[in-house]
Amino acid sequence: MSASPPVHAKYEVVIGLEVHVHLATDSKLFSPAPVRYGDAPNHDVHPICLALPGVLPVLNARAVEFAVRAGMATHCTVHPRSVFARKNYFYPDLPKGYQISQYEEPICTAGWLEIEADGGARRIGITRIHMEEDAGKSIHDDAVTHGEGTHVDLNRAGVPLLEIVSEPDLRSPAEAAAYLRTLRCVLRYIEVSEADMEKGQFRCDANVSLRLHGEAALGTRNEIKNLNSFRFVEQAIETEIVRQARILDEGGTVQQATRLFEPATGRTKVMRTKENADDYRYFPDPDLVPLVIDPAEIERIRIALPELPDRKRVRFEAEYGLPAYDARLLTADRALADFFEDAARANGTPKSVANWILRDVMQHLKERDTDVSSTRLAPEALAALVRLVDEGKVTAKSARELVPELIEKGGDPAALVRERGLEAVSDGGALEAAAAEVLAANPGAAGRFRAGEDKILNFLMGQVMKKTGGKASPAAVRDILARRLRE
Question: Which of 200, 160, 198, 153 is nearest to 40 (CA)?
């Protein structure tokens, strides 16, 4: 594994990330209230998440399974015994005045993820994964509150979270973003979270500090809260590096603080100073017994884990003969990887299928801001389209015209080719005649080819393709022109 190059000439950047992930459960962590997005404020609530007098929390078993699954997928030790604690702080969107979390005995510890960044592979340690409930949401937007202070929406209160805490192993904003992308990919693969950043299902706090190159002791960290896009993570960390370096260069001292990143200004500002674990007065929750998981249940979850992206990438290279770059792109999303495999098996030419997905299908998916699982394009349809091109029954140009329609509406590529009259011109006499006309009209180009300028053949091919409306087989046109030019 290669070390990441310095991103600052004088200081080593030290970054640790705390990632908060909404689990894809139907109900909340300690109550039967539904987990939904987009509902009217304060409609997805229950006496337990509202902290009404006399209520007691009841743990969601599905959330526990998801936590175990996440721990295994990130190479953590999954502990059969963990303890829930109360994290005490007071805020309008926290009805109980404390948050149920885990502290001294979390469910998972000591894992790692391997990332690709700055030109090499790096293993990033994971300190812990613990379960906790989310708080509600305070709304300060005047467009919503009509200037009447702050409104509170408790739909999110009690939604099950995993907090995934990395070791301070990251050394650049690019590495931080790569770690987050890798982590989100893994969580989606194992189907514990949609990890939709726009819905707040995947958000990050970044701890940043600087130290002189070669020093062992860590510098004073600042924590940047609630970053909800990869771009903002990189911008916020870069901004904090510049700010701390300026303070140190001027002989000042960095003060420990929790900060907020403002995308509009590109700056961070202080929210509060010197926040430590003892400020929250953690203690075991007296309403919850320790969580004890049967080792047989842990093994059942392990056996049921799907193939993870790193293993799938290696298999794609070996089984389908794909370059490492192609395999990495195809396995970045589980739905895309599954689509590729289904199409490759139906077609029999994996590299051709991969090329069409990565070049043509992905272009249209990006334009529509969607993924392949949300389209009408069937793997078998793409396989059939690629086969038509490989067999010379339709040109690549004509086939590409069908990709948007197949994505939007689905359909049979062979039938669409017939309906649109897109069949490749295969009449040898017609192609011979077109080639003869092009050579007669371009004697200079023909002479340059005969003089050794091989690239001019591409120009002549283009002229023949124009005469046939782009429907001629390029291979057939090339063969006919080459033969005629050597006669």
Answer: 153
